[in-house]
Design brief:
The complex is a heterodimer of chains A (374) and B (197). Chain A is α/β, with parallel strands linked by helices and 374 residues long. Chain A has one domain: Alpha/Beta hydrolase fold, catalytic domain (Rossmann fold), CATH 3.40.50.1820. In chain A, the strands form three sheets. Chain A has an eight-stranded mixed sheet, sandwiched between helices. In chain A, strands 2-3 form a two-stranded antiparallel ribbon. In chain A, strands 6-7 form a two-stranded parallel sheet. The longest helix of chain A has 16 residues. The two termini of chain A are 26 Å apart. Chain B is α/β, with parallel strands linked by helices and 197 residues long. Chain B has a single domain, classed as 3-Layer(aba) Sandwich (Rossmann fold), CATH 3.40.50.150. Chain B contains eight helices and eight strands. Chain B has an eight-stranded mixed sheet with strand order 3-2-1-4-5-8-6-7, sandwiched between helices. Chain B is globular and about 45 Å long. Classes of the chains: A alpha/beta (374), B alpha/beta (197). At the A-B interface, helix 8, strand 12 and helix 9 of A face helix 3 and strand 3 of B.
Chain lengths: 374, 197
């Protein structure tokens, strides 16, 4: 299998799809940037799809080409890790609408020869999932051993199980929700307004010019980053400590360490992310309400499902709190699904799922191993 | 099923093959795993302790971290053939409501609990004047999770007042089965199979 050019690191392919979008349009062609780790077996039934979060990418367990940093989930994915690449063929695809090689607003629209910008269609989480299915068809993978994701990745995992129940044997949904809340939408709107208020944004047509809306995107990232942490985590990490100074400056520089940290988060983010992609993907998340197409009854999204589910939440996550995971568990119970759930304790808020969490490793390892024998 | 706790063994031996069960307070999932492996039972569990949930999920079981007092309301009516509550009734805040939920969720319910009228318990309180500490009630008064102690006779009259049908009852003393005679005095542990009338 190792000679199969479709598998490996830093892969990209253009497929004709089309992706039938929720807004009624069709997207064609569709570019996919993805990575695979481990070998697909002869039965082609040992594939695990990892769905990434809003600003993550396909570099789940290999160095990011732009930042040179290690993959974003190396604590979880690799040989002898819970998502064991010696047992599974792990696939991670840059999500539709993003900017790391898959089709998004920075891609060239074949119809016009220019970059899409705001002409890129507004997409949904379901559109992302339907696009991923087209790539899996291309890889000749009919059934996934598991689909796994945290945050927006968890929304995709839920959607996978709902849209393609026969293609998903197990789903692991971490720190996620079945529906974006008013508060979630509100925070995203702050970010989008920050981007669109940046004079460099120019209605999204900034690709030709010298300057991108970096200031706006950076503020969007700063606001969002607060929601990924917890008061306890921020207090523990920074408290009211001053940054490189002994006294308050009586000015508006970054007096406090937490200010300096957020500014750093904002300024490094703009080097690796496209502002328009941020608009499109946050919009997709805001539109996410899995029950909407099922008369508002979430259980109906999973009627008759044979998929095994494992849900994990974190007690300090106030962005997608435990109560949201419990609602999903409730719906899955009502649908008679095989579902496991645990709330883990961590002071680090929503981002806990990206950190090395031994309890999370243990439960994912156990859940995946149990799925191989059943 | 010989390695199961004796009360769980009784439950396991009396569950129908292929049944759907909900084990409330399932611990590390020993009973669920035994029923799945020997009786092809479709089992679900609820457990409050995270480390037990990890252990159960590692056995391939579907277990939800939750609390019998608050989370049973989320389960639909008659979703299971049996709802099982083993050695958990006396730890709940509202045993009456928990029992209502069990009989709503399951067509039948197994309930097992330590009998507070067991003679050793009685003599400990009567002669020693101290809260009893026994193999089935190993914790002291201040740290025991058992906040609603109950006797077999209490439970029977409670069932009668609620018009719950008793379809089966089993008694244990010293981990060995014993007959029903003088159960309230002689049994250390009781298992009931219940059905709504």
């Amino acid at each position: 299998m190792s000679e199969d050019e479709r598998f490996g690191l830093n892969k990209g392919v253009r497929l004709m799809g089309p992706v039938k979008l929720d807004n009624g349009a069709e997207l064609v062609p569709v570019d996919f940037a993805y990575e695979t780790y481990g070998e697909i077996n002869e039965a082609r039934d040992n594939a695990i799809l990892i769905c990434h979060a809003l600003t993550m990418d396909q570099y789940v367990a290999s160095k990011h080409p732009a930042t040179g940093k290690d993959g974003w989930w190396t604590s979880m994915v690799g040989e002898d890790k819970p998502i064991d690449t010696s047992r599974f063929c792990v696939i991670c695809i840059n999500v539709l609408g993003s900017c790391l090689g898959s089709s998004g607003p920075a891609s060239v629209d074949p119809a016009s020869g220019n970059q899409y910008g705001m002409d890129f269609p507004v997409i949904t989480i379901a559109d992302m999932v339907r696009a991923q299915a087209i790539l899996l068809d291309h890889l000749e993978i009919e059934t996934l051993a598991a689909v796994i994701g945290g945050s927006m990745g968890g929304m995709q995992a839920l959607s996978w199980a709902s849209i393609f129940p026969d293609r998903v044997r197990s789903a692991i949904v971490i720190a996620a929700t079945a529906r974006h809340s008013a508060q979630n939408i509100a925070f995203h709107e702050v970010g989008r307004q920050a981007i669109m208020a940046d004079p460099n944004w120019q209605g999204g047509n900034y690709y030709e010019g010298d300057a991108a809306p970096a200031k706006g995107l950076s503020v969007a990232r700063m606001a969002a980053h607060i929601t990924y942490m917890s008061e306890e985590g921020l207090t523990e990490k920074f408290g009211r400590n001053l940054q490189d100074r002994d006294a308050k400056s009586f000015g508006f520089g970054a007096d406090f360490q937490v200010e300096s940290y957020l500014r750093h988060q904002g300024s490094t983010f703009v080097d690796r992310f496209d502002a328009n992609s941020y608009l499109y993907i946050t919009r997709a998340m805001d539109y996410f309400d899995l029950a909407e197409a099922h008369d508002g009854v979430l259980a109906k999204a999973f009627t008759g499902t044979k998929t095994r589910f494992c849900l994990i939440s974190f007690d300090s996550d106030w962005l997608y709190p435990t109560a949201e995971s419990r609602q999903i568990v409730h719906a899955l119970n009502a649908a008679g699904a095989a579902v496991s759930f645990v709330e883990l304790s961590s002071p680090f808020g929503h981002d806990s799922f990206l950190l090395d969490a031994p309890d999370m490793n243990r439960i994912i390892d156990g859940f995946l191993k149990a799925g191989e024998t059943s | 099923m010989s390695n199961l706790r004796p009360d769980l063994s009784i439950i396991a031996n009396n569950v129908r093959d292929g049944a759907r069960i909900l084990d409330v307070g399932c611990g590390d999932g020993s009973l669920m795993a035994a029923l799945r492996d020997t009786k092809k039972v479709d089992a679900r569990g609820v457990e409050i302790e995270p480390s037990n949930v990890f252990a159960a999920v590692s056995k391939g079981l579907s277990v939800i971290q939750g609390d019998a007092d608050t989370d049973l309301a989320d389960y639909p009516d008659n979703g299971f053939d049996y709802a099982i509550l083993s050695q958990t009734l006396q730890t709940t805040h509202r045993p009456d409501l928990v029992l209502d939920h069990l009989l709503r969720i399951g067509d039948r319910a197994f309930v097992s609990f330590p009998n507070f009228a067991y003679w050793r318990v009685r003599s400990s309180l009567l002669l020693g004047g101290r809260m009893p500490v026994t193999p089935h009630l190993p914790e002291g008064w201040h740290d025991t999770p058992n906040i609603h102690h109950v006797t077999i006779d209490d439970f029977r009259s409670f069932l009668k007042s609620r018009k719950v049908t008793v379809e089966g009852e089993w008694f244990l003393s010293g981990n060995k089965p014993r007959k029903g005679g003088l159960a309230n005095l002689m049994a250390e542990h009781a298992v009931f199979l219940l059905r709504k009338s």
